[in-house]
Amino acid sequence: CVLCGRTDNCPEKYGEKRTYVEYNLTVHYYCLLMSSGIWQRGEEDEGVDGFLITDIRKEVNRASKLTCNICKKKGASIGCVAPKCKRSYHFPCGLQRECIFQFMEDFRSYCWEHKPVQQFTDKEPRGSSQCTICLDLVDHLPVYSVLKSPCCKNAWFHRECLQYQALSAGIFFFRCTVCNNKDKFQEEMLRMGIHIPEKDASWELEENAYQDLLHCYQHCDVKRCLCKKGRDYNEPDSKWEIKRCQYCGSRGTHLACSSMKSWEQNWDCMECRSIFAKSGKYRKRKRCSLATSEKTNGTNSLLEEPSPKSPRQSSGSPRNFLLQSPKITCQNLSPCSHLASNRVTMSLSPVVSNRIWSLTQKCLREQRREVHNILKELKVQVKTKPTRLNINAENIWSSALKGFRQRNFSPTNTIEVSFSNCKIKSKTNTSGSKHHFFQLLMHHLQNSSLFEGSSGKNLSLDFQAVKENLYFEAGKMIAVSLVHGGPSPGFFSKVLFDCLVYGPENVKPALEDVADVDIAQTIKTIKYANSLSSLQSALQDCGEFLAAAGCLRPVTALCDKNMLVNDILIYHVIKRTILPLESFRQGLKTLGVLEKMQMHPDAFSSILCHNPERLSAEIICDLFTIHSSSDVNKVKGVDFWMGYLQDVESGESVVTLEDILLFVTGSCYIPSIGFDPEPTIKFLHMKYPIGNRLLNRLELPITKTYQQFKNKMELTIRNTLRVERE
Predict the structure, then answer these.
(1) Mean pLDDT by 10 residues, the chain (726 residues)
(2) CA 559, CA 530: separation in Å to the nearest integer?
(3) Where is the PHD-type domain (predicted)?
(4) Considering Cα of 95, then 97, then 102, then 107, what sign does the dihedral take?
(5) Is 536 exposed, middle or buried (0-12, 13-18, 19+ CB in 10 A)?
(6) 364-510+577-609 CATH, one of 2.30.30.210, 2.160.10.10, 3.90.1750.10, 3.40.47.10
(7) Is 419 helix (H, G, I), strand (E, B) or coil?
C-alpha cells in the first residue's frame, strides 16, 4: 500500500486492497478514506472511487514527510483531529494503538489520548455477560475491545464481533441484536469507530439463497398409502391432495389415506401426537382443531411411524419428559459422586443447588491438588536437555505434529518453543511461549475431527486419522502437556475417561453420548416405541443400520427394545471406535500418565472431564507466597494487594486476573502441575511493579495510599501486555 507501506491483504481490518497496474498504484481502501489531506473531487467512476490519481500522488508525497508516532516510520497520512494535537500515524498502526476512526461525515480520526469513549455509570452492572453475536463471555469493562449498546441496558459486545456483523449486514440490516433498534444503535457505533458499509446484506446478495424455503413437503407418510400413483403423487382439489402435519409441516398424507373428506380438516403426524400425548397437552390441542378433524381418530393404525429426523426443542419432547419424571430423585447424592457426569438434570431449590455446587467445587479443588502432586512425581523424568519446537501459531496442528515426530524429540527433554510466522518475528520464551503453545494445542484438539460431541467429547471414527496414527499423537500430546506445564484438557466425556481407565468392556454408554443426530433420533424412536407394532415398524425403517451394527434380531415383545438400545449404544460409542481408542491409550502411556490415571481415577477425572475453575481473587491470593523486607511493609502491602485483587474480580479495573497472571508468569492459566518455581510476591521501595517470569516473582512497590498502588498496577500491567501483543 502506497500510504501505509504494508503488504497485508485483510479486507476486514484495512478495507479492500486494490491494485491499479496502469497507474502503478496499490492502496488499502481504509487508508485512502481516512487520510487527512485528500478528498473525493471526482465522480464515483473516476480514479479510485472518486479519489483522483493526481490527488492520491499528492497525498503520498505529503505523508512521506510525516513520521508515524507509533512505528516511527515515514508516511503517516492520518492525523488526530483534536485541537492542538499533532500526532500522525498509519491506519494499521492506529488500529494497533486503539485509535478511533469514524467512517462518516468528514472521516475523522482520533488518537489514543483524545478518542471518544463510552460513558460508564456507577450503576452499570459489573462482571461479564454473553456477547449476543459470538455467544462468548464479554467483560463489562471500559476498554477499547468492548462496546455497550446505547439502546439496551444489558447488551455488551466485542468490538471485533460488531465490526464483522456490520460488514456482513450492511447499513440496511445492521442493528442492535437485542432490541432491533437501528438509528440510535448505528449512530453510536459509527461514533465509536465501527465501519458500516453502504451496501446490501451479504445474505441478500447470494444467488438463490432462499431457494430451499420455496420447497413444500409433498410425500404421503402413512403406513399403507392407497394411491396407485405412488406416495409422491399430489393432485390439488381431489382426494389425492397431500395434507401436511399442522404442527411440524414435515410429514404428509393423502386426504384419502387418512379418511379425510376435506382440506379443512387438520392432520397430526404420529411424532407430534406422541410428543403432545407424553406432555399431557394433546387433548387440549385437539380441542383447538376444527370439529371435523375428530373424524381422523380412527386412522391411528394407518399412520406410518416417522423416520428419524432432527430432535425438536419442545417441553414435551421425550427427553424432557424423562427428566421431568417423578421417578428421578436425589437418592444417594454426595458431592463427589459421579463428578464427571452431567446426565441427570434435577429441579432443586436454590439453597440446595448452591450447597451441592460449593461442595462439588471443594471436592474438585482437593482432587486437583492431588493431581498436582502426582504430575510433579512424573516430572522427575524430565531432564534439562532442551528440545526446540518451531511452531507456527496459524497452523498449530501441523507444526506441533512435525515437532513431536522429529527424530530428536523426546518427551523427557525440556521443551522450548519458538513461534514464527509471516506476521510475527520469531521469538523464544521457555515459559510464556510454552504455556501459550500448549494452550493453543489443547484448544485445537478439543475442536478437531478426532473428537465428537458438544461439551463432553468421545473419540470419533476417522479412518484417515487412524491410518496416519493421529490418535496416538493426540494422546501423546495431552500426556506431554500435563507433565510439562500445559493446561488441563477438560473436555473428556465420562464414557471416554472410563474406557481409558477401566477398559471399554466395563463401560455402559447412554443416549447423550451419541453425537450423530440422525443415529440419536433412530435410537430414540426405538427407545420410546409404545407398542410392539410401532417398534417393529421402527426396526424395519432402520434395518440397514441395525444390520451394519450387528444388532438386527427378531423382536417378539416390547421389552426387547431395552436390550436392543443398549447394544446399539455399545456398538456406536465404543465398539465402532475401538481402534482409535486403543491408539489413543497408547499415546497417553507417554511419561506414565495413563498408569497414574488408572491408579487415581477420581483425581484425574477432575482435570480431564471438567473445565478449569475460573480464576478468582481467592485463587490468585493462595497462589502467591508473600515476602517482605519488614513486617510493617508486608501488612500494609498485603492489604493493598488483596484490595486490588477484589477490585479486579468485581470488574472495577481495566485489567483482569488473567492479565495479572500473564504479567507475572507468562501464562493466563494455572497449569495442572502448577508453576515451577512457585509464584512469589516481594514488596520493595521501587517506582513501578515488575513481573519476573524467570522466577515467577511479582515485585510490588510500597506506596502510601491504595489509589497510588492501584494506578501503578493498572498502568504497568496494561502497557506491558499491550506492547507484547503489538
Answers:
(1) 91 90 91 92 86 92 94 94 94 94 92 91 75 88 90 88 93 90 93 92 76 79 88 90 89 88 82 69 41 39 37 35 32 38 42 59 80 91 90 91 92 90 48 87 93 90 93 96 92 94 92 90 91 88 85 85 91 93 95 93 91 88 78 69 92 92 91 91 90 91 91 93 85
(2) 10
(3) 1-115
(4) negative
(5) middle
(6) 3.90.1750.10
(7) strand
Sequence-ordered list of residues with C-beta below 8 angstroms from that of 426, at least 6 positions apart, any chain: 418, 419, 420
Q: Are strands 252-254 and 386-391 parallel, antiparallel or unpaired?
A: unpaired
Residue pointed to by grid coordinates 373424524: 295
The pLDDT value recorded for residue 298 is 39
List Cβ neighbours of 252 (8 Å cut-off, separation of 6 or more). Answer: 217, 218, 219, 220, 221, 242, 243, 244, 245
Q: Which DSSP category does 338 fall into? A: T
Strands 109-110 and 88-89: unpaired
Nearest residue to 413 via CA among 391, 442, 381 = 381
Residue 279 sits at the vertex; the CA angle it makes with 275 and 283, to the nearest 5 degrees, is 90
Q: What one-letter code names the amino acid at 459? A: L
pLDDT of residue 552: 82
User: How do the domains of the chain map onto residue ranges?
Assistant: 17-110, 128-204, 364-510+577-609, 617-725
pLDDT of amino acid 212: 67
Query: How many other CB atoms are there within 10 angstroms of residue 262's CB atom?
Result: 11
Matching CATH number, 617-725, of 3.30.70.141, 3.40.630.30, 1.10.357.140, 3.30.2410.10: 3.30.2410.10
Backbone φ/ψ region at 193: left (φ over 0), alpha (ψ -120 to 50), beta: left
DSSP-derived letter for residue 25 is E
Tell me, which fold does domain 17-110 have in CATH?
Herpes Virus-1 (3.30.40)
Write the secondary structure of 276-306 as one string of H (helix), E (strand) and C (coil). HHHHCCHHHHHHHCCHHHHHHHHHHHHCCCC
Closest CA to 95 of 38, 156, 28, 142: 28
The answer to whether 513 touches 570, Cβ cutoff 8 Å, is no
What is this structure's pTM? 0.52
